[in-house]
Design brief:
The chain is built from 20 helices and no strands. By secondary structure, it is mainly α. The chain has one domain (3-449): Hydantoin permease (Orthogonal Bundle). The model is unreliable at 1-10 (pLDDT under 50).
Length: 453
């Protein structure tokens, strides 16, 4: 690391509270807002929720603590932290792989975040509800050039936050938006729970159905426990580099996990009561958000207002995640090429925008018919980053902490008993389960055993 970059990063630190809030902001994304409620209802309600918590304890939280420890111990970007602790280019290569993964995710995630911004604006103005064929409305929008402009707006907002630094930008931004997100969730949850027929939605979401617990449902819970905490993409490792030595990483891990889970639960208590109250089909995944729920808001008193709040909520959740994703590449650029933070941010965001343009045009747009191996450009970015790079990054973290880094105990700061339990999980349990995540997410389990979506 050059002297300029080192001095720049040395002055960038989170406060204790700011770190936890920023990490929750990174973890809470669009997946929490629609995927977690959807898979919980589909795979057994409260029974699935129990399995998810077990998976979170066995793989999610141990890997989260490991990533933050590497970041704080190495005091560098995702690649440099590994190298500072091991002096081995192989481990640094795995760190670089996570940087590539976060960049790829941001390039298509910004497109989806742009959808939420546009829908929020249209809902507040009422124009969203002019045509009741909401699937056609979304198709027409996705098939135009408009998503590129909204993608650019998301990256401009994200870049503005990241360019302002860690404490003055990322921390301050999350300290405002994460509590605001919670307030919006509570308002919309109260609205959803007070709708006629909302009880059926709550039952669908939280009533246990152990008959739905199959190998597939367990693997889905395992995968979501890994992906929901932003693991394997370098974000928690990068944020860990900005954590004060006095911060308890164990306590922070529990707080981040609890916050991530709370936001997902509240989202479920919005989406399913609202869907059932208006007789909508809740098992549509992302299509539920843009093609189905607008019909519910159109039928609801003050629906344009509550719909606007809902899409604003989604936009906030998305942008708190895009901030952490961009920071991974910016931190690397600052170290690798001695760029100032504003320059690194501008160049990285621009590159991400250019890579993301084909993604914006491949969801029903001009590039929608360009399908290779059954996937569009958008789908391939998602598949490679989420299903291959992230599990490999998570596996590298567990192996590095479990076997290569001899002084990890000095960094995690756990009591002797909890350290032994954590080390057992990181060495013997988490690596196996992360391999299961990889085999499931890539479809290998589906081919071999028929376990899959």
């Amino acid at each position: 690391m050059t002297k300029q970059a080192s001095e720049s990063r040395a002055g960038e630190r989170f406060s204790s509270t700011g770190f936890i809030i920023a990490a929750i902001g990174s973890a809470v994304g669009l997946g929490n807002m629609w995927k977690f409620p959807y898979i919980t209802g589909k795979y057994g309600g409260a029974a699935f929720f129990l399995v998810f918590i077990i998976c979170l304890l066995l793989v999610g939280l141990p890997v989260l603590l490991a990533e933050m420890a590497i970041g704080r111990g190495g005091r560098g970007d995702a690649a440099t932290s590994f190298r500072n602790l091991s002096r081995n280019k192989v481990w640094s290569g795995f760190g670089f792989l996570s940087i590539v993964g976060s960049f790829m995710i941001l390039s298509f995630y910004a497109v989806v975040a742009g959808w939420t911004l546009k829908y929020g604006l249209q809902s507040f103005t009422g124009s969203l509800y002019a045509n009741p064929d909401y699937a056609a409305v979304f198709g027409a929008y996705a098939g135009s050039l408009q998503p590129i402009a909204w993608q650019a707006l998301v990256l401009l907002l994200t870049g503005w936050v990241v360019a302002r630094g860690v404490s003055g930008g990322i921390e301050s931004f999350n300290k405002v938006l994460i509590p605001g997100l919670l307030i919006l969730l509570i308002i919309l949850m109260i609205r959803g729970l007070t709708l006629p027929g909302a009880g059926a939605g709550v039952s669908f979401f939280l009533e246990p159905d152990f008959s739905k617990l199959t190998p597939t449902s367990i693997l889905v819970a395992l995968g979501h426990a890994f992906f929901s905490l932003s693991l394997g993409m370098g974000t928690m490792l990068t944020y860990g580099a900005y954590v004060d030595r006095r911060q308890s990483l164990g306590s922070a891990t529990l707080a981040i996990g609890a916050g991530d889970l709370l936001y997902a639960l509240l989202a479920g208590l919005i989406i399913f009561p609202t869907s059932f109250a208006f007789g909508l089909e809740p098992a549509q995944g992302p299509g539920l958000i843009f093609a189905v729920l607008p019909a519910a808001f159109a039928s609801m008193p003050l629906g344009a207002f509550f719909g606007g709040l809902f899409f604003l909520l989604l936009a906030i959740a998305a942008i708190t995640s895009t901030v952490s994703l961009l920071e991974v590449s910016v931190a690397y650029s600052m170290r690798r090429w001695s760029f100032s933070r504003p320059k690194a941010t501008a160049l990285t965001a621009t590159a991400c925008f250019l890579v993301g343009i084909p993604a914006a045009l491949s969801v029903g747009g001009p590039l929608g018919d360009l399908v290779i191996g059954g996937r569009t450009y958008f789908d391939w970015l998602d598949f490679i980053a989420s299903n291959i790079i992230l599990p490999l990054g998570g596996l590298a973290v567990t192996l590095f902490v479990g076997y290569a880094w001899k002084r990890v105990g000095d960094e995690v700061g756990l009591s002797a008993l909890w350290f032994r339990i954590w080390l057992i999980l990181v060495r013997y349990v988490a690596p196996v389960l992360v391999v299961f995540v990889f085999l499931f997410s890539t479809g290998i389990f589906r081919v071999l055993f028929g376990w899959g979506e």
